[in-house]
Structures
1.
Amino acid sequence: MQPAWAPLQNLPGSPPAGDEVWVFSFSTAPGPHLDGLGPLLDDYESQRAGRLRSARARAEFVNGRGFLRLLLGGLLGHDPRGVRLATAGNGKPVLAETTGLPLFFNIAHSHGMGLLAVASHAELGVDIERLRDVTDRASLARRYFHPSEVICLEGLTGEAQQRLGFFHAWTRKEAFLKATAVGIGFGLDRVEVTLEPGHPARLLRIDGCEQTAAPWTLEHLEPGEGWLAALALRAPCGKLVTAHADLAKMME
Ligand SMILES: CC(C)(COP(=O)(O)OP(=O)(O)OC[C@H]1O[C@@H](n2cnc3c(N)ncnc32)[C@H](O)[C@@H]1OP(=O)(O)O)[C@@H](O)C(=O)NCCC(=O)NCCS
């Protein structure tokens, strides 16, 4: 059963306990609250935001990084702007400071909705996609999916099931590739996942090897009607806490 996405009442003051994992959704829409979130970004992020041409892309970035800084600042007990971030792999934001306790996190956004996932016990990645029509879906699947996944996808009956199956596979693969920090350059087809709607999310094989995939957990997420998401974690997932953060309200 899908966890509920109740409103996040307060920013947590201590990190996820044990094998608990948090996934918070948020709107990435522009609004006056960005006047409060923008100044929380560091110089690098502010410059990056400034280079983004569209207001939508800027709002997506500022909402995500502003929320990340508010959350991490609260957990680390200091000013959000002072949170030091670095990049790992092919650009994954990670904490640059040693906190005594590791904090793993990852951001994703799609068409107005963002996700921020946090854990203390294992590396993770998250991906979200708006369920939408993709005209060249069959050819994208043949190009980027593993042959066994293509067979499974083509075996699904009806447009709705095929569309769901496609986005299940896409979000699960990308969540895994984001957890490793390598990104899609690794090759989506090297990662085999379950994709049948209604079946549990599982990472089946990496480069054909079940043993390499075994430490990984995949979680299927439905953060809002019309969106699909996935969380990949290099460990078992204990309690999964999902909530919606109203950033506009938080910045009032
Ligand atoms: C990471 C990647 C999968 C993101 O894909 P996307 O669907 O465009 O974007 P998403 O919304 O899912 O995720 C974006 C967020 O992921 C995070 N991110 C960036 N690079 C990441 C990486 N290598 N691993 C994990 N997370 C990453 C960032 O927080 C980013 O958001 P922000 O910059 O606004 O904070 C993709 O950009 C990628 O593969 N990058 C690595 C570069 C690479 O390998 N390129 C090869 C091209 S063939």
Note: Residues 129-233 form a domain with the Ribosomal Protein L22; Chain A fold (CATH 3.90.470.20).
2.
Amino acid sequence: MSTYAIGDLQGCLTPLLTLLDLIEFSPDKDRLWFAGDLINRGPESLETLRFVKSLGDKATVVLGNHDLHLLAVMRGHASLKRNDTLADILLSEDRDELMEWLQSRPLCHIDNVLKFVMTHAGIPPCWDSIETQRYAQEVERTLSSDRIDDFLAVMYGNKPDQWDDNLIGMDRLRTITNYLTRMRFCTESSQLEFKSKEGPTSAISGYAPWFSYPRKKADDYDVIFGHWAALEGNTYKEHIHALDTGCVWGGALTAMRLEDKTLYSTPCPT
Ligand SMILES: [Mn+2]
């Protein structure tokens, strides 16, 4: 049995099927992890969402910012943006089942045997892996409760931009969500910066990639994340693995076999 973690799909089902052939994925033996942003921008969002859902417990998915955006649009808290390719999902006959499945996915997944932790954007320097899971669960519980609409209505926003144990209510949930689904650059004290989206050299003075800082409390989990295509898969950190290699932008779709950290990749058409 092997476990493969796969980067951002963003509606690119054809490259996913090619990659699954390449790794000779067997649903009877193997497991798949997806680093979030299953949908949007790419050509086959509806088909991709249906396919990953159909994998059932063979697939572990963490939510990305695009997945949360879809939930907000579906539930009437946001409107489609110019580059969104979500209309076919909104009009699909199975949209309610897809939405229910999506809103019950986690924001953080930890495997205590393989010693891996996965979120869409990463882990801020101020948290260890166990804290990350605990804070993620606060958002997950909200998405699975009748408070989901209260949260999605105020989910968007860059403030507060720094963790504080004393944060409460929706500010607390928004801050956790921003760390786990939108983070790229921050300060050593985990204050977020949202403007730069290019590679590490695009950092504004005083900010650096979240993974460039020593974590406040070191632990022995390797980190898997997606979200940041401009890294082109490189963090130059042995235990931090960037899996978004820009499939939807004509890059590649990447999988890592967790048991031995072997990388597999398939080119994506532009
Ligand atoms: Mn993302």
Note: The helical segments are 13-22, 45-54, 65-74, 87-90, 95-103, 129-143, 148-153, 169-181.
